[in-house]
Amino acid sequence: MKSLLRSMLAAMLLANAGYLMADSLADETYGTLVAADGTISLPDGFRQRWTHLGSWVVADSSAPGAGFHDVYTQPGAAQAYRANGEFADGTVLVKEIRALETGEKTTGMAQWAGETAVWFVMVRDTQGRFDSPHWGEGWGWALFEAKDPATNVSKSFEETCKGCHVPAQPSNWVFVEGYPTLK
Amino acid sequence: MKSLLRSMLAAMLLANAGYLMADSLADETYGTLVAADGTISLPDGFRQRWTHLGSWVVADSSAPGAGFHDVYTQPGAAQAYRANGEFADGTVLVKEIRALETGEKTTGMAQWAGETAVWFVMVRDTQGRFDSPHWGEGWGWALFEAKDPATNVSKSFEETCKGCHVPAQPSNWVFVEGYPTLK
Q: Is A78's CB within 8 Å of B48's CB?
């Protein structure tokens, strides 16, 4: 009986929390991850608490995006996209790129992710909030390295980020074909 | 002010819900995903709400595990493993195996996940609850196909599952080297 009550209470709390989170996505993003001057911080705990949208593997070690890419967003942002087919204001995408490990497993020669190298971060801005080299095309753009996760080392979104994303312009600069969780 | 109050309320609710979830992991698993006779069901919504532990890619299409593997667990189960270094009773692991898509991207030749093929499910049982061909070595084991997600098509854990997991026996039958989120 105690555990039934507990489960019911947990379900009620989660349902409320989910509603509140979705409702305050932009408030939370622009109150915490983005400073008043537009400086973007790397989110904390996204691997544990955010929704995993999908992964990419670029196996050619000489390619510009070599490594194992995992992409995460806030649970409320994924819900909003599934409901409306577009990225809501305040949506944050984190692409974590890790070293590519390879080896023979019982299921065949396998690839998996090792040490983290960098994180690319995109922040949805439908309001044109900032006049900054890190903001444009409806997004904020940042790059963090594992050796110093506190510092955005992107020169500007035009120089560091945009080039690779041009083919994804029709889907609002995001390669959604790799993210079945959005469908 | 309203949004600040909302954020505070959401944080309080989430903190409570997280505590309650961790506390009732086994109650929830054995009350919902596992029936009284030990029948295992495929969890719902794990892509959206569970923690992504890691991915594997088996690119050789003739290999037994060919495809893109994504592995998920309950948030409370990942927390418990990080705290205690072992899988708590009621932990559920879902390995979703999808078709492997490949193509040239701006970051290099890339691989990503397409249509879902199957799901392997493991359920941690530290109590030896069931005398069943689908339960053994401290886990319940199941296999579901995308064409009929309601039916466990594993013949038995010895015939369908165990063989591939033998190298992972020292880490309680799970290939934890691919799951940095557990560290």
A: yes
Average pLDDT score over residue span A12-38: 73
Q: Return the bridge partners of A95, or none.
A: A71, A120
**Between A and B, how many residue pairs show a Cβ–Cβ distance under 8 A?**
183
With vertex at residue A65, the alpha carbon angle to CA A62 and CA A70, rounded to the nearest 5 degrees, is 135
pTM for the predicted model, two decimal places: 0.83
With 0-12 / 13-18 / 19 or more C-beta atoms within 10 angstroms meaning exposed / middle / buried, residue B171 is: middle
Convert the pLDDT of each residue in B18-59 to its tens digit.
444 445 899 999 989 999 999 999 999 999 999 999 999 998
Nearest CA in chain A to B65: A107
Residue pLDDT, tens place only, A137-183: 999 999 999 999 999 999 999 999 999 999 999 999 999 999 988 98
> What letters, b where the CB count within 10 A reaches 16 and e where it falls short, cover A46-63?
bbebbbbbbbbbbbeeeb
Residue in B55, B79, B166 closest to A70 by CB: B55
CB-based contact A3 B24, cutoff 8 Å: yes
At A45-104, the pLDDT tens digits run 999 999 999 999 998 888 888 899 999 999 999 999 999 999 999 999 999 999 999 998
Instruction: Catalogue the E-assigned strands of chain A.
Output: 51-58, 67-73, 92-105, 108-124, 135-136, 139-145
Query: Domain segments of chain B: what residues?
Result: 2-182
Q: Which CATH number fits domain A2-182: 3.50.70.20, 3.20.20.100, 3.20.20.70, 2.115.10.20?
A: 3.50.70.20
Contact B72, A120 (CB under 8 A): no
B63 token code pair = 């290999």
